[in-house]
Specification:
The chain is an alpha+beta fold. The protein has two domains: 2-117, Sandwich (Immunoglobulin-like), CATH 2.60.40.1120; 122-236, no CATH class. It has seven helices and eight strands. Strand 7 and strand 8 form a beta hairpin. The protein is globular.
Length: 237
């Protein structure tokens, strides 16, 4: 009788484990070169706060892995607790989607060395950031020029710089809007819109929202963009 009970218990335990494994649709693997000890946290934003969804303890080996479940492609964060400071340099953003994702980086350059593979949305997001960085670099140069024009009270030059800053911002916004329209089948597009140009003119937001594919429209950020557009329209009534 005891053997029968033990057998049934074992079967139930194995079934429970199998059920958990089958519910995890995202496998994350990676390596942090140079890391021997520490703790990794996989986090997501929930109601404007980062929430831990998995914890990985590093003890001697720099490789790590995790299996989690996500309902829709979304931006997650791989936070490294060095036991020193809570710095933004300790947080790698990666666009997660069901499947297998690999993250390779180094301890001394945790953020800048990060290489993320296995996610189409990550590739699209990186493509956008690479091109958008040109606008950011130009803006930094203009801000520096504005600082010196203000310091030496060069009014005519200051007006010219302010106009250039305004034009550069408009170009960045239009570029981002066009990028989203050209990638209407990617869940990264509504995320980029919400995080980069949420205050653009409503006509652009409305066009982007209506152009999203059905799949993207039903995704996490697709729904957020739709609700955001509805909210703005209601405020404007």
């Amino acid at each position: 009788m005891k053997k029968i009970i033990l057998t049934i218990t074992s079967v139930l335990v194995l079934a429970a484990c199998a059920k958990k494994e089958s519910s995890d649709n995202l496998q994350i693997t990676g390596n942090i070169k140079g890391l021997k000890n520490g703790t990794l946290y996989i986090q997501r934003y929930n109601d404007s706060a980062l929430v831990i969804i998995d914890t990985i303890n590093i003890d001697g080996k720099s490789n790590f892995e995790s299996s989690i479940n996500i309902d829709s492609p979304e931006m997650l964060y791989l936070y490294l607790d060095r036991g020193v400071t809570n710095s933004l340099d300790n947080n790698i953003l990666f666009f997660a989607e069901p499947g297998k994702i690999n993250i390779q980086t180094e301890l001394d350059s945790y953020l800048s060395s990060a290489k993320i593979t296995g996610s189409k949305n990550q590739e699209i997001y990186e493509e956008y950031k690479k091109l958008a960085s040109k606008f950011n670099d130009e803006n930094l140069d203009l801000i520096e020029a504005k600082f010196y024009a203000t310091k030496f009270q060069n009014i005519s030059k200051l007006d010219s710089i302010n106009n250039k800053i305004e034009q550069n911002t408009k170009r960045r916004y239009l570029y981002t809007a066009n990028f989203a329209l050209n990638h209407k089948d990617a869940e990264a597009s509504p995320y980029i819109v919400l995080s980069e140009i949420h205050d653009i003119n409503l006509k652009y937001l409305d066009t982007i929202q209506k152009t999203m594919s059905k799949k993207v429209g039903q995704s996490l950020y697709g729904k957020k963009l739709t609700n955001y557009v509805i909210e703005i329209k209601n405020k404007n009534k």
